[in-house]
Write a structure and sequence with these properties.
Distance between the termini: 30 Å
Radius of gyration: 14 Å
Shape: globular
Number of helices: 4
CATH class: Alpha Beta
Family: Belongs to the free Met sulfoxide reductase family.
Pfam families: GAF_2
CATH topology: Beta-Lactamase
Protein name: Free methionine-R-sulfoxide reductase YebR
Helix content: 25-40%
InterPro entries: FRMsr_CS, GAF, GAF-like_dom_sf, Phosphatase_reg/MetRdx
Keywords: Oxidoreductase
Strand content: 25-35%
Largest sheet: 6 strands, antiparallel
CATH superfamily: GAF domain
Length: about 150
């Protein structure tokens, strides 16, 4: 059932971003789309690479950390490793940065242009172990479509 859900959501992403070339506008609408369609989230948005740190970008949720050093927390680890980080219990993640105490699980997916990380998509849930392998595959598909629309 989840694969079909993500395929449907992917069609919405492609329609939403068709012809859009402004990164901020695309990130804002992408965040809003995910926030409206995914359940049991307390934060969804982007951190954008600025030098050797991630800086808060468009998001949906409570006030967030503004800057995250590379390699720090789940977001900084995903950016440095250029690899999705899916964390069942953020309180067990070494170096976790608690921007919102209500977050218990998290998934962070790198956003790439020409193979280089330019941002990360960060999604938090108050539910432990909220994101499974199907969510990861589905969300990575959505990010690939985001990249294709903006950078292809």
């Amino acid at each position: 059932m989840k694969p079909q859900f993500y395929e449907s959501l992917n069609r919405q992403v492609l329609a939403l971003l068709e012809g859009e070339d402004d990164l901020v506008a695309a990130m804002a609408n992408f965040s809003a789309l995910l926030n409206d369609n995914l359940t049991e989230l307390n934060w969804v948005g982007f951190y954008v690479m600025r030098g050797e740190q991630l800086v808060l970008g468009p998001f949906q949720g409570k006030v967030a950390c503004t800057r995250i050093p590379m390699g720090k927390g789940v977001c900084g680890t995903a950016a440095l490793a250029n690899q999705t980080q899916r964390v069942a219990d953020v309180h067990q993640f070494d170096g976790h940065i608690a921007c919102d105490a209500a977050s218990n699980s998290e998934i962070v997916i790198p956003v790439r242009a020409d193979g280089k990380v330019i941002a990360v998509l960060d999604i938090d849930s108050p539910i432990f172990d909220h994101f499974d392998e199907e969510d990861q595959k589905g969300l990575e598909l959505l990010v690939k479509s985001f990249e294709k629309c903006l950078f292809a």
